[in-house]
Design brief:
This protein is an alpha/beta fold and 471 residues long. It has 2 domains: 252 residues, Rossmann fold (3-Layer(aba) Sandwich); 188 residues, Rossmann fold, CATH 3.40.50.2000. Helices cover 41% and strands 14% of the residues. The strands form 3 sheets. The protein has a 7-stranded parallel beta sheet, with helices on both faces. Strands 12-11-10-13-14-15 form a 6-stranded parallel beta sheet, sandwiched between helices. Helix 2 packs across helix 3. It is globular and about 65 Å long. The two termini are 19 Å apart. The structure holds uridine-5'-diphosphate-glucose. Uridine-5'-diphosphate-glucose binds next to helix 2, helix 13 and helix 14. The site of uridine-5'-diphosphate-glucose has 23 residues, from helix 2, helix 13 and helix 14.
């Protein structure tokens, strides 16, 4: 991956460093850091250690779209944690924040001692130990401060826009961008559980000893917000890099799922831009009532669809398939069999988005889904559920203007009726031939591809990060 010039320049120095990657134990965070591990390992002679549990390593490896030769060079550590059985996601709960993220925190705390021992062992063998930890794993790596040749960098898995708003909110600053007031921002109410907020605060406290920040975003999508984030840095030694997107941006020809999943074969037979992908990531569980409304709305829209009908992941108990029996309207599957495909297990989301027949994405606006959709030039119908998603939805629909709103955050406790689903699906898919929204999405995807190519801004930032850690 690295330029030859760069490899020669740093060949000697990079022998002397080792990188330890510490992801947060939840699907939305595992693969981004696995992709970053591959990127770093693709630079000559940089050894990368990826620290997790057996279950989460399995989950990450099975679900990653691996387009890197360097994957085999990563050293995986599987540290034991007690099995926390989190309660089943409650699809009827008003607060949609998933309880399993809470148990991910509980599991994570058991990694602190083994991670400490690993850092100490590596510190005696290498001149520098570079730790890259998820922003939710600050407390797990905090003992690095007692190791003189170790330094840590915080990895932020969310958008720069969301992060900036969180920081401003904490500092009680007005939301001013280019002297314009950002209005109608969704409130934080309903985004997190109070326990999770407390845990996040604890983790953010641990960040203050870190040497820099890595953002899972790119200048193509978020340049103004990245510049504003730079201004928030209080510690002058702290450096920042935007190294996203981490998903492959071109169709992964030899990817694990390519052409093997029925929905991809079905997509091959459809018209360009004619299919909408409906998927809500790994943390959403809908009530039966809401699922019925979506089903009726999709059917009445008469649009072609791929609907990933799965429940939220469950804590550190990794199940490939959802065990809940989800009720659909009577006769639905038979009636829509020419129009749509239901996927009840892990869907090849990136391959679906990159397929030319896919023309829209009905999404919860998890940040990975946003980056993947934008990378593939697919406009989004935004239906946020919790966490950073309401703000991502604003970025997508109001700032980047590549999507439409399904349901305003203020109405989050109301059932979204089938007529609303129908209307939104029709509206998103109406622009098959190209309109402003679709053209803008295509434009951004082209720019993102340029940014990851040789000489592009992402490659420049990545080279700069590698130069810094191998200095
Ligand atoms: O059947 C599936 C379901 C998901 N995915 C992939 O799984 C990831 C899902 O990530 P994301 O879209 O971010 O959703 P969540 O799983 O909900 O992610 C959590 O983590 C994100 C990053 O911190 C946050 O932005 C979200 O709010 C939080 O819910 C994406 O890469 C998808 O492509 C599949 O490939 N197939």
């Amino acid at each position: 991956m690295a330029s030859n010039l760069h490899i020669c320049k740093n060949n000697q120095k990079s022998q002397k460093i080792v990188v330890v990657i510490v992801p947060f134990l939840a699907q939305g965070h595992l693969n981004q850091l696995l992709q970053l591990s591959c990127l770093i390992a693709s630079y000559n002679n940089i050894k990368v250690h990826y620290v997790s549990t057996k279950t989460h390593n399995l989950q990450a490896k099975l679900r990653v779209i691996n387009s890197f030769d360097s994957f085999s060079k990563i050293h995986f550590h599987e540290f034991p944690t007690p099995s926390f059985i989190s309660p089943n996601p409650n699809p009827n709960s008003r607060i949609k924040f998933p309880s399993h993220l809470q148990s991910s925190f509980e599991s994570s705390s058991y990694l602190r001692n083994p991670v400490k021992r690993l850092i100490q062992t590596l510190s005696s063998k290498y001149q520098r130990v570079v730790i890259i930890n998820d922003s939710l794993m600050g407390s797990v790596v905090q003992d690095f401060v007692s190791v003189p040749n170790a330094e840590a960098y915080t990895f932020h898995s969310v958008s720069a826009f969301t992060l900036l708003l969180f920081i401003w909110e904490r500092k009680k600053r007005p939301f001013l961008i280019d002297s314009e007031m950002l209005i109608d921002l969704p409130s934080l109410e309903g985004c997190f559980s109070p326990e999770f907020e407390k845990l996040m605060k604890r983790e953010y406290e641990c960040m203050k000893f870190n040497s820099g920040k890595i953002y899972n975003t790119c200048r193509v999508m978020e340049s103004p917000f990245l510049d504003l984030l730079l201004k928030e840095v209080t510690n002058n030694n702290e450096k920042q890099w935007a190294l996203g997107p981490f998903n492959p941006v071109t169709f992964p020809k030899n990817g694990p799922n390519t052409k093997s999943h029925t929905c991809l074969l079905w997509l091959d037979k459809q018209e360009p831009n004619s299919v909408i992908l409906v998927s809500f990531g790994t943390t959403t569980s809908f009530s039966d009532e809401q699922i019925k409304e979506i089903a009726i709305g999709l059917e009445q829209s008469e649009q072609k669809f791929i609907w990933v009908l799965r429940d939220a992941d469950k804590g550190n108990v990794f199940t490939k398939d959802s065990s809940r029996k989800i009720e659909l309207p009577k006769g639905f599957e038979e009636r829509v069999k020419e129009k749509g495909i239901l996927v009840r297990d892990w869907a090849p989301q990136l391959e679906i988005l990159s397929h030319c027949s896919t023309g829209g994405f009905l999404s919860h606006c998890g940040w990975n889904s946003c980056m993947e959709s934008v990378s593939m030039g697919v406009p989004i119908a935004a239906w946020p559920m919790h966490s950073d998603q309401p703000r991502n939805a604003v970025l997508i629909t109001k700032i980047l203007k590549i999507g439409i709103v399904v349901r305003e955050w203020a109405n989050r406790n109301e059932l979204v009726k089938s007529n609303v689903v129908k209307k939104c699906v029709e509206k998103l898919m109406a622009s098959k031939g190209g309109d402003e929204m679709r053209n803008k999405a295509k434009y951004l995807s082209v720019e993102i591809r340029k940014s990851v190519a040789e000489g592009g801004i992402k490659r420049i930032e990545l080279d700069s990060f590698i130069s810094h850690i191998t200095r």
